[in-house]
Amino acid sequence: MTEIKQTIDGNAWWFILSEGKIVALDRGDYIPFGTISDLPFPNGLIDNKVLLGQYQNSPCYLIEVEANLDVGLGEYVTLRSLLGNVADKLFDMAGRAFQIALFYKTHQFCGQCGQKMQRIDWEIAMKCYHCQHRAYPRVSPCIIVAIRHKKKILLALHNRHQNAERPMYTTLAGFTEAGETLEACVEREVFEEVGIKIKNIQYVSSQPWPFPHSLMMGFIADYDSGEIQVDPNELIEAHWYDIDDLPVIPRHGTIARKLIEKTLKRCR
Ligand SMILES: [Zn+2]
Question: Tens digit of pLDDT for each residue in 52-67?
Answer without folding.
Answer: 999 999 999 999 988 8
